[in-house]
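ASSEMBLY PREDICTION REQUEST
Request ID: AP-0331
Submitted by: J.K., bench scientist
Number of chains: two
Total residues: 663
Priority: normal
Notes: Please return the full assembly, not individual chains.
Input sequences:
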Amino acid sequence: MPPFVPPHQPGHFAFRRFVYAPRGLRYGNQELSQFLMFQEPDSRFETRTIDISAFGIFPVQPRWPFTPNTTPLNGIVFIPDGPGPFPLAVFAHGNHNPLENSTPGYEYLCELLASHGIIAATIDVNFLNGRNRGENDARAIIHLEHVRQFRSWNERPGHLLHGKVDLSRVMLAGHSRGGEAVGHASVFNTLDVLQPDTFAPAIPLNGSRGLGPYHFGIRGVLAIAPTDGQYVPVSGPTAVCDSYVVIHGSRDGDVFDFQGYKTFDRGRPRSPEFKALMWAHQANHAFFNRGWGQESPVPTLERDKQERLGEIYVGALAQAVLLGREEVRALFEDHRLAYREGWVDKALPLVSQFRRGDGAPISGFEAGDAAQFQTDAHAELITFDLGRNSHLFQETRGLRVSWVEANRELRVVWNAGMPSPTGHTHFCFRIGLSHEAPNAPDVPLDFTVEIADGRTAYRVAIREQMELIPPDTGRPYAPDVEPKTVMQTVRIPFARLVQAGVDPARVGSMRLFFDRRPKGIIYMDDLHFSR
Amino acid sequence: MPPTPEFRVLAVDVHRVEPDPTDRSNLEFLSQTEAVENDVFLVRVHTSGLPPASPVGIEFRLGDYTVRKFSEWEGGVYFKVYNPRFFTKHGGKPVKVSVDGIRFEETGVVFPSSPPGKAPQPHDAARLLNLR
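STATUS: Completed
Returned structure:
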């Protein structure tokens, strides 16, 4: 394996760029001039058209030179030099002015991945853009059909990509509505038949109608500032089953309500895969795509800094799940790796969550939960969804704890050994601050966390374990949209407990002792053991 | 995306149209459980000042019912209805719109209570959407 290169820095592979498309496309209309690049694809990379009419229809404007029945597979691919086989990453844009070609906006990310030995493509879904809604199933199908195109080239003797594409190592990445679509694609990838809507019949995905089969080895799904729930499968809201990472900016002027938090909460990664979240203060919606202009009405992170964030997280996920770089997987467990390594300026606040699929839940504060809580502060179990313009817009229940006098406490108690910590290495939970009084804006909160086994307790100030950052109060949208409360995952190694004389196998309680600030409000969820 | 105050819903009209192949497939599927007809209903929402294409986009409700799937034509947006009972169920309800998913504003337009009656020749959807 080549020496490790930080995820945002170019790797050692030279690479080449190719445009791929079906033969004979003619964008004769002047308003479609940005798509002329697809008129003359490299002759070695001619593709086919697919019929997506069962899933989506194009907005009437602009007049595309094709129909949903003849949807072209257009894209730009970057291929590393060498014998391969190389893993594959495919990026998709989201909704934007359909006359502006959104596809090239992720070339900078494709180049980065190609330099690390990953075939990386950015695809054309512009024909689905416009003032429409509910078409994200079609975006997902198109995304998977592009992967299938690469499988076709991989299997074609004599083709430049013959034997070079490792379909067991695939990453899907999408931005905005494309970010929602990759979640659907994660699920569709497992299906042989799909009923897109209640009013429509099931569509075979086994190749008999020109779509599928899929069943690719998707190792990672990356959602950049995604929407959520614009398309809802007949079976219910999508729960991503692959390793899933969502990144989102606090000053997103479009998807201002952090809809991907809901997708994240619903995610059920198979063991031993994971889901992770990175909430970047000051980042906007558009700057992850190099071609999109500022959308946020408030000051945001500069474009180059936001692109760097994109490179770090895209590069890290690709290196972790496609190249098996365990050293960079740690970024998802704890974002402070990026500070320590100097990848991100420490002045830029980040919040992160991490959850392995094989973690052992202690309490998610859901109905039927075995854990109980006791407090002399004020605590209530609530659903963390108070509406899109509220500070809580999730799909989980959790604890809201407030105190107005010092030395109050909250204790969560469960039967020691239930679940067993065997095989795990960390005690974990997620916890966050809201903008609500008496929390002070821009002032981190501090209190003592105590984990006990009935005889001995391990105590640590939360600030020493993981700083809880107050919400970004630079409102991205409108005065009545509240700054988001985004919890931070706290992972306490068993080694620390053992050093303090605590036996992880006998741990049966956690206490939050509010001894360091006289008043405050916190939100907490998802106590669990994890590796 | 900030709200665009000039965005307005002007009217809703409904046309009985000839099904396209996808519609036929859907009608055949629905006919197993519902009383559908041989035609489909094209609902055109006439608007002015549609906001730019954006991730969140616009949302439509008929009363409390959310229209989950619609597309754009040059006069506004449109969607198709397969079962005439849809009009019984949602007819007379106020058409509401949102450009941010938070604030749904009444447009003053009411969704029609009944679909157009059967005609010897249904309309051509492509012509109604200015596709031809």
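REVIEWER COMMENTS: Chain A has two domains: 15-356, 361-530.
SIGN-OFF: pending second reviewer
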